[in-house]
Design goal:
By secondary structure, the chain is an alpha+beta fold. 20% of the residues lie in helices and 26% in strands. Its cofactor is Fe(2+).
């Protein structure tokens, strides 16, 4: 089981490297990694399990965040009532199209690999199309909007060596285009 001690923290070089593409069929090691990353997300969103194991809640976890420099990310995205609206493990994902219109979370973003609060809006495309493979090697493309699009962008950024705060406007962290959708 992945615990907080297993999460690589900001400053580790693996977080700034472009992740290596995986080939199919996935090895048992990478299939287990996918399962373990999803298990962390499920456990972290369960208040009792999270408290017992001192897990910080997460909606996404990329392989580099657990020290594996490969292109894989688990996503478990709830709605505002806690119901899961998107659950998937991406292998070799890429955003193949995105909207011009941006969106962001009203409270900014956080990251399991970043221990401090970094204030500022993180503008991302409101709609994205993600092309990826499943753990079983099935090729897919999915169109996402709003919060699932934000989470997908955050995790795919990890696979490209970027952290959320790289997207914050350094001059004015709370500046937004006037048509940006703010999710509360």
């Amino acid at each position: 089981m992945i615990l907080m001690k297993d999460i690589v923290r900001d400053g580790d070089p693996v977080l700034r490297q472009v992740a290596q593409k995986l080939t199919f069929p996935l090895s048992d090691h990478y299939r287990k990694l996918a399962d373990d990353m999803m298990e962390y997300l499920v456990n972290s969103q369960d208040p009792k399990i999270a408290a017992k194991h001192q897990l910080r809640a997460g909606v996404g976890l990329a392989a580099p965040q657990v020290g594996e420099g490969v292109s894989m990310a688990a996503l478990l995205v709830p709605d505002d009532k806690g119901e899961i609206i998107f659950k998937e493990v991406y292998v070799n994902p890429e955003i193949i199209s995105e909207s011009v219109r941006k969106t962001c979370l009203s409270e900014g973003e956080g990251c399991l690999s970043v221990d401090k609060v970094i204030d500022g809006y993180v503008p991302r495309p409101n709609k994205v199309t993600v092309h990826y493979w499943t753990v079983d090697g099935e090729e897919k493309a999915i169109r996402l909007k709003g919060y699932p699009a934000i989470v997908s962008g955050h995790e795919i950024d990890h696979l490209n060596g970027h952290l959320f705060y790289d997207r914050i406007n350094k001059e004015n962290p709370f500046a937004l285009d006037e048509d940006t959708i703010v999710i509360y």
